[in-house]
Amino acid sequence: MTKKLVCIVMTMFITLSVNAQLQHYMDSLSICKARIDSLQRSLDSLRNGNAANGKYFRLFAPLTFYPDVVESVMGGNGNGKNSSALDEVINNALLRNYLKYPELVETTACKLHKMASAAESTPTAPVRRKVEVVHDDADTKEAALPSDSPVRLEIFKPNFWKFSGDYNLQFMQNHFSKNWYKSGDDNLSAVANVILRYNYNNQQKIKFDNQLEMKVGVQNSPADTIHKFKTTSDLLRYTGKLGLQATKKWYYTFQILATSQFVRGYKSNDPMVYSDFFSPFELNFSVGMDYNIDAFNRKLTGSLHIAPLAHNFKHVSRLDLATRYGIPEGHHGMNDWGSQFTANITWIPTDKIKWGTRLYAYTTYSRAVVEWENTFSFAFSRYISAQVFLYPRFDDGVKKMENHSYWQFKEYLSLGFSYSM
Question: How far is residue 11 from each of residues 6, 16, 34, 70, measured CA to CA in Å?
Fold first, then answer.
């Protein structure tokens, strides 16, 4: 009897426990269904565009400050006729974000209204396409090209030539050493300088650089009773390079260097001609290697030419100037072989400062010529600049003046106009 009672009690307990668990499960399903129905109603309200649509948008859009939210919550209008429970929940959530996270507010309702008004006021002209009506008549059919007519194909080759130039007109003060190899006196003068470049580069292996330098300076010296005008600078120089690329920056190069002057050169109160056109004239051929310099974001550019084999030809049209330029007396010219080095470098540290230098050295191992030209340019504007020109020169192939060395020096300071292209 006792065992039967225990079994009945256990059966009832298990039944109640199962029923309780089943009831809990049914309750959880009801809660889940209510949540799903709530979400579905919210989605339907957003999808159907009812009055609550704008309120939901405020929750999911970038945080925006709406004055009506603060007025509704803080002004006590939350229970007005036009306010619903959903509006109060949304407004409270927005106000909570305004107070706790003010840094997240990206814009205001006032700015949004201004942007909308500007967009609506912008006229949008309709796009109209011009349609040309072509009548299908007999003439048009006869003029039509057959489908297999040949097509003319034009191929335009790239232009590998590049032209550039520098132009200067300067006014200056000059100083010459007494043993300067041409002529000159301390003076105030003006000089015009033109440098033209016409270079070829096919971006593969061939380069052909051409540079023509022309410089003429004149002065009117009151102390000179013989010459009304004299030249202070006189240069006509052509440099040509034909290069075949060996590596990225090295080229096998054949160089031609020709130098002369335009007009006669005099000294003050001296009728003697110290230089003239083709007196002297130098022509130098050299074979060697070129190294291209390109550094500091193209602020330092130039080239180095190293030629272990070079031939130099010197000529004077005036026989009386032969010995002055190292040519044997009674001869118009001379030839010799040697080695050559040329450096042309431009450094532009700032937009207002530019340094251009040319170093030329030629030696036959019995005589040597070294020329180092330095031009410092200081730009005041696009067309106005000042220049300092320093030119030391060494030549032990000419007759040395008494109490002077083989070193010669020239300098000038100038101010004037400049233009580059």
Answer: 9, 9, 35, 62
Residues 6+ apart with CB under 8 A from 250: 289, 290, 291, 292
Q: 413 has which bridge partners?
A: 173, 388
Q: Which DSSP category does 129 fall into? A: -
Query: Band of the pLDDT at 143, cuts 50, 70, 90?
Result: low
Give mean pLDDT, residues 175-183.
74
Residue 185 pLDDT > 90, yes or no? no
How far is the C-alpha of 17 from the C-alpha of 28, rounded, in Å? 17
Q: Are 318 and 281 in contact (CB under 8 A)?
A: no
Residues 6+ apart with CB under 8 A from 383: 417, 418, 419
Q: Using DSSP, how many helices (H) and how many strands (E) does the chain show?
A: 6, 16
Read off the pLDDT of each residue in 258-282 and give the average, rounded to a whole number. Answer: 91
Q: What is the pLDDT of residues 304-330, one digit of tens each?
A: 999 999 999 999 999 999 988 889 988
Q: Do 317 and 279 touch, CB atoms closer than 8 A?
A: yes
Q: Is the pLDDT of residue 172 over 90?
A: no
Residue 28: CB atoms within 10 Å? 10
Q: What percentage of the chain carries pLDDT values higher than 90? A: 41
Strand extents, DSSP E, 106-152: 107-108
What six digits make up the tokens of 123?
Answer: 């006229």
Categorise residue 347: left if φ over 0, alpha if ψ from -120 to 50, beta otherwise.
beta
- Residue 229 makes CB contacts below 8 A (sequence gap 6+) with 218, 219, 220
CA distances from 269 to 224, 263, 337, 417 (A): 5, 18, 39, 31
Kindly give, in sequence order, each residue whose CB lies less than 8 Å from that of residue 149, ignoring residues fewer than 6 positions away.
Answer: none
What's the token pair of residue 329? 């007396």
Residue 128 CA neighbour count, 13 Å, CB half: 4
Of 209 and 12, the one with more pLDDT: 209
Report residue 348 as tokens.
Answer: 């532009």
pLDDT at 124 over 70: no
| pLDDT for residue 51 is more than 50 | no
8 Å CB contact between 258 and 238: yes
